[in-house]
């Protein structure tokens, strides 16, 4: 009922303040079905996604108009029967480019994803996070039906296998953002080698808590995805300095790196990252620069990396001025590393030096 009232209010406002040809600022409308597609889409731009779904069921005319103009929608508000909603809603909306199906409790099944892949061939962004019921069949259908995907979130989909993920990478080669957090069976070195080989445009990858990921997989990513900007390796206990060194040498656009609880990481990895800053400057010396390209690493989480020492981390911090330890700007996170409390960013060191100078002058 709330959705219908909301739709009616927007409709009345459009009639009062809108304009239509020959209508003196009003459209000539006697029934709901007479609303022009242009006006209907303007109305729906003012309401939430739940109301859009309700509106699509008013009449065939409305459904056809919405099908023509609707490119982005989220069904995450649906707490029950999301699977049935997808099965009935999606076939009529083939122009979708963004579809968000994030769930609090698992609802989606393979037949819903198969329907999406069968009808939404223009899809660029798909969020299936926490879809625990999905199997490899879903990844196979996405691979064949949605080749233009640039952003895919399957975090928490723990039933997917690495063979299905590797298969997907062969067809969805335009992927730029991929979230595999918690996909412990899918995110293996075998799958990462396939991603590194097939998805060369990848910019952001979340491998959080994928404890089968090792150096071979990360090195394949580093060699195959040179434009990688953000990589989350938190809880990837098998990786060593070799992974970080490969990233430092090959992914010169890397801005965010999460190494939380990667306790095999040592000073060697930190010095390698610091040296990559110098290498990056040399390689881009004659190329046009902008502020984004020039700031280097901006976020680094080395919490619980207890083998690191202050000199190595300080060298890294000095190499990347955008890494902050000061209050309110923490982008260098060192929680659980009590021996790193002496590490400070440039803006934290300068006030300390000024205070020392003032104290010296006072005496």
UniProtKB/TrEMBL annotation:
GO terms for biological process: SCF-dependent proteasomal ubiquitin-dependent protein catabolic process. It holds the Pfam family F-box-like. SMART domains: FBOX, LRR_CC. One of its GO terms (cellular component) is SCF ubiquitin ligase complex. CDD domains: F-box_AtSKP2-like. Residues 35-75 form the F-box domain. Transmembrane segments: none annotated. PANTHER family: F-BOX PROTEIN SKP2A, PARTNER OF PAIRED, ISOFORM B-RELATED. This is F-box SKP2A-like. It comes from Olea europaea subsp. europaea.
